[in-house]
Amino acid sequence: MNESAHPVPGTPGSPADEPIPTDLGASTHVTPLQLDLLRIVWSHRECSVDTVRDELAARHELARSTVHTLLHRLARRGVLTLERRGRQQVFRPAVSEFDVRRAMVNNMVQSLYRGRPSDMLAHLLEEPGLGAEELALLSGQLAEAEQRSQRLAG
Question: According to CATH, what is the number of the domain 3-93?
Answer without folding.
Answer: 1.10.10.10
